[in-house]
Design brief:
The chain is 60% helix and 8% strand. It is mainly alpha-helical. The protein is rod-shaped. The relative contact order is 0.06.
Length: 93
Amino acid sequence: MDDLIPGLVGLAIIVGLFFLLRVIVLWYWQIDKITNALNSIDNRLRDVTSILSSVKDNTNNLPRTVNRICPNCKEQVDNDSKFCFKCGRLLDE
């Protein structure tokens, strides 16, 4: 039992030094600030993604006026379009 106590004290010192050095390394490299910034960016990107998906869902329900066909690629285009969205050709007025 007497041999066990110095080993436990040594283990406690090693664990304490590990946590102390970990805090110093994290402070030096500012890892906590970087992690918080990345989490903030991630949350904002999730918000933007959800907004964009809702906008995309809403625009799919809008009626489209397809009255012309591109002479180059035969894609259907809106009546008020100046360019073909598929091939990029300038459409005649």
